[in-house]
Amino acid sequence: MTLPPATLRDPSVHPAPSRSWRLVVSLAIGVYLAAVVMPPLAGPPPASELAGAMMQPLRPLVGLLHLGHGYRFFAPNPGPGHTIRWTLTRTDGVTLTGSIPDAVTDRPRLLYHRRFMVSEKIATLVPPLDAPADVRDAAKRDWGPLVRGVATNVLRTHGDGRLSLELVEHYLPAPDEVLAGTVEPDVVTPLGVYERRGEVGR
Fold first, then answer.
1. Alpha carbon 56 to chain centroid distance?
2. Does this model's pTM top 0.90?
């Protein structure tokens, strides 16, 4: 058997990491793993309050590393889904309609999932219709730029005109509701009317 060169076997040349250094590295790995695991556990209800409390000190790191992914969309108890429904009356008089995402036209499937995340992100920022006016006005400062971006993209793709956008929340019925025929209707929230120059109405 051939032994490695003496310099590789000499601890004075390649000393082992100190115990404190190994502790720091282990702690960093543990914090990173916690930042990966906690966001889906501390997601929207029915998440536990304990998971939410454990998530609080990790929020800056989760935000910095973009680890707040929406894994819970596919959990055993997902919440309602959301789409953005649009109606475009073009300057030539033609009226077009569509939705974001669109399972038929959004190909490849990855494009559908990316647009699905756009509508879900906007849905997290838009308050319900019965929220106080000051709450809705404050929230619009967050979701307004995102919706204007969606409007700009639709107008660029389909032509100039007046574009009406609505957020549609698709209620997810329980099996007994389906059997009883008591499925609740979708909830529609207006997002405004847009033209190339920006928002022109609500």
1. 19
2. no
DSSP assignment, residue 16? Answer: P
Which spans in 42-58 are helix H? 49-55
Euclidean distance between CA atoms 169 and 185, whole angstroms = 9
Residue 165 tokens read as: 């956008």
Query: 4-13, 26-35, 68-77: which range is least confident on average?
Result: 4-13
Encoded tokens for 94: 């033609």
152 closest CA partner among 111, 79, 112, 100: 100
Contact (CB, 8 A) for 119 and 167: yes
Per-residue burial over 96-124, b = 16 or more CB atoms within 10 Å of its CB, e = otherwise: eebbbbeeeebeeeeebeebbebbbebbe
Please provide residue 97's backbone torsions phi and psi, each rounded to the nearest 5 degrees.
-130, 155
Element at 33 (helix H, strand E): helix 19-41
The pLDDT, as a whole number, for residue 53 is 87
Alpha carbon distances (Å) from 159 to 102, 107, 152? 18, 21, 10
